[in-house]
Structure formats: structure tokens, C-alpha cells
Amino acid sequence: MQYLIAFLVGGAICALGQLILDTTKCTNAHLLVGLVCLGAVLSGLGIYEPFQEFAGAGALIPVMGFGSSITKGMLSELERLGWEGLFTGAFEITGLGLAASIVFSSLFALLRKPHK
Amino acid sequence: MKPQEYQELVKENSPPRPLLRNTLWAFFVGGIISALGQVVLDVAQGAERTKAEAAAVTLAVMIFVGTVLTAFGIYDELAEKGGAGAAIPITGFANTVTAAAMEFRREGFLLGMAAKMFVIAGPVIVFGILSGFLVALAKALILGLF
Amino acid sequence: MASNRIGSQTVTFSKGPRITSSYTIVGPMEGKGPYALDFDQILPDDVLGQKTPEKTERLMLEMAIEKTLQQKGTKLEDLQFLIAGDLMNQIISSTFAARTYSAPYLGIYGACSTFAQALGLGAVLLQGDFAEQVLIGTASHYQTAERQFRYPIELNVQHIASNHHTVTGAAAAILGFADQGPRITHATFGHVVDMGIKDALDMGSAMAPAAFATLTQHLKDTDRSLEDYDIVLTGDLGKQGRKMLRLLLTKEDYAGLDRLQDGGSQIYGDGQKTGAGGSGTACIAVMTLGYGLNLLKSAKAQRILVVATGALQSTVSVSQGESIPCIAHAIALEA
Question: What is the per-residue pLDDT across B58-71, written as a single tens digit (0 to 9) for each?
């Protein structure tokens, strides 16, 4: 059941994004930045957490989840450390993914060439 | 013909985007990637201590998946069909990093690959952190967390 | 008025400079298109064992020049000029290829119209008695252009219908005076036209007004109609630009639209996923020297007008929100 919800919610967010791409002048970059900000704001308003509780990966995997994770990390670190948390918290949850992205990408850039 | 008239003419004669087909493909591709993410999340939640940690591990695993699919030339084909369905999931974020790293590696590891790795993903990180910071700051001020 | 000019933008070549030899090379995708038999060489892959696609592009140009020289046994000393251009920043492919040759080198840039610019300039040098033989060449490569103007190859991008696919290929030709070979009779050098189109993913629509301006000016200057040509081969307008050019001509009541063909729209055929069609400096070059010349040689056409178009934006100008200035040059060829 949770898989179906993740499929439906994740798919719906992407379908909506595609509609924005096809009907406006938005490019991929605009769309992704917009979604990441939206995720961060919704998380600050306390909306994204219940949504993610319901949709699971359907809310986590779309890039909004990345924005939400940044805010969430900042808020939790803020409680733990005080004002420093506003800065250290940015990578509290996302740091693992970012570092992984750098390591994996460097590795594969060594091994593979772009091709067509 | 005046430029404005011509621009109108172009607008009237631009090829229509296949809205329904694109949207359905985006839904399908984005949905499949999210469902795959759910599998990873379930496994991670079983093994990890907190929800935040499980989420972090899931993001990392999906980033690995996106990187591998990019390295083997599959992700750009997936995006040709899936559009936003391939761009919006975190695997798409990984794709932008890997694609740039692979492309610019030819200009050297330092000033090519390393310098240009985040040429496309950069804005997402910058605006993610800026908006997260503002939101968290506002919330902290309102709730008097300082 | 200068004696070799007619009308406001056209020059005529009374001495009859000809394309005496030529050679065309294309990549595997272009080789799968309907004009495969017209090209001299189809490459098995688009790498050629080179470390970077920029090196491959340069090598293709060197190969095309080498083969063109071999055809009639032309020696480098017999050439007074080498005119070449490509799409790379600072036209590095042409310049790096040119350092192999000792002929005086003129590097030019006209985006996808570069080939027609070189053809026209070469004919001008011959007509003016400044040279006896001129070598012209150009090359482009999908990967080099994609990286410079668009995105990394492996990036998740959904290509839209109006987007062009840069042709991988190279072409070279020797212009001179001989008894045989297609004659260059007229050149109409275009002026820059900018209709305010900003979408770099729809270059066809941006370029169509430039093609229209040069084509109609050519017809006016030479007092000809479209029907005076067996084929009017426009370059790189693609499916979208071709449509816009036809609309513009129809609005002004031009007849003989059946003579219009477009190199970019036709080079790949219909089966391949190439959006609006081909572009790149090599596109109109291989179509003219391959397809066009074969029609003239086999007497299937007596007179051809090549209208090569170019979009003169840079990545900087596009990201700063500037519109796309475009140009077109027309060259009339006769059997």
C-alpha cells in the first residue's frame, strides 16, 4: 500500500512539474529551484512532515524533499546548538547525499565517457 | 514585417507540445522512481535508528542509482521520455552532477571536473539553503528559540 | 557602381570560378539518413580514436582537406588562400587544422552559414584576380556543439520538437578555374536580421527571416524568380524554420515554393530522433557539396541556389537575455 501511495504522490508531483515545463517558459533549472524552495517553506510551516509521514518516499524523493530536509536539519540543530544550528543544520540530513554525489560522480567520471 | 508581428506569427505556428503524453510519462517515470525509493526507505527504516537517518540513507542510495544510470548512458534516455519525471526526483539531481563531471573531465580534474561538477546542480543547493535558512530563521524568531 | 555588382547586395562572377574538387565526411547518424550515397565518406563512429570530440572535429576537417587536395593532385603551394570556420569559440577547429598547412589562412565565423560565406569569399578572391585556387573547409560535431551551446551529453533533458541536432561531419572544396565542375555565378551576402526571437531552442524560427531577407533580395537583384532555380537549398532552418520561411514567402505572394528544400530538415530523414533536423556548420556544407553537387553533375539540376543561414548568438548573449541575430548568404551554382 505504501508503495502505491509513493508511486501516486511522486508521480503526481512530477506530472505537475511537466505541465509547468510544457505550458510556461520555465526551464528545468527554474522548476527544480522552485520546488526546492517550496519544500523548504512547507517544512518551515510544519506542513511537509505530516505530508511525508503519509506519502513516504513519494514526498522524500522529489527534490522538494531535499529542500524540506535542509529546513528540518536547521531547525533540529537550532534546538540542539542554538544559532550555529542555522548553519550547520543545512547539511545535517542532506550532507550524506551531497558527499555521496560528489564521491560517486568523481568515480564514474574517471571510469566512463559521455556517449551518444 | 515588424519584429512584434513576426514574434506573434512564430507563437501561432510553434509546434504544440504533446501535453497528455508528456504528463503521463512524467507521472509514470516519477512514480516508479518514488516507489523504488520507498523500497529503499523501508529497508533503511528497519536498519537505522531515527527517521532522519533513514531518510538520509535513502537519498544517498537513490543518488547512487542516478549516478550509475547516468554513467552508463541510460538516464538521458529515460529523461527523453520522462521529462520532469526524471528531473524532479533526487536521481535527477545526481544525474546533473554526474553528467557535468563526466562532460568537463576532459578539461582536467581540477578546473574541469571539480570546478564544473555543480554547474547545473549548484542553483538547487544554493537556493535550497537560502530558503531553508530564511524559513528556519523566521521560525526561530517567531517561536523565540534564541 | 563596381562592375561586378548587381542590385544592392549581389556580386556576380563573370570569370566563372568553379568548384574543382570537393570532399564530404559525415558521422554515423548522418550516414543513416536518405543522403548517405551523396557523401564521400561515412565514419563508423564519431570518436575516431581521439581523446576529445574537439580533436575529432579537427581531425575530420583535416581529413576532408587532405582528400580534397588528393583528388586532383593539388599541391599546397598552388593554393593562395585557405578559408575555414566552425562553431567552436575562437574557431579553434579550423585554426588548429590550418596550422598543418602553409597556405595563408582566413578564419571566418558565420555560425551555420559559414560554408556559404567561405564559398562567396573564395569566389570573390578568384574574380578579383587575387588568387588562382582557394581552399575552403568547415566541420562540426554533435558533442562539441552540444557542450558549448547546450548541455552536457548525459544530462536529463527532454528535447523539444523545434530543437536542432548538430551534424557531425566535415567538408572541403577547392575553388578555381577549370573546364569542369559547378560554376559559382552569384553570391548575395546577407545583412544581419534580428526579429527579437530569444528562444535558443527554436533557432529555425529565429533564422527564417534572415533566409527570407537574403533570398528575396537575391531574386530582386538578379531579376529572377524561384522557378529559375531547380532547387533552392536553404540551410539548417529545420522543420520549424522551413515552415516559417514558407509562411513569410506566401504572405508576400512568391510563387514556386515547390523549389524550396532544406538541408537541416532533410539530412536525417524521418526515422531518427533529431527534433527539427540538422544544424551546425557541416550541415549545409555536406548537403551542398554532397547532394547539391551530385544533382548538378548528373544533370538532374541545372541551377541551384544555396541559402545558408546562421544564428549568431553566443551562450553569454543568450544567458543575458539578448535576442538572436541571424544571417543568411545565398550562392548560385550552375552545372
Answer: 999 999 999 999 99
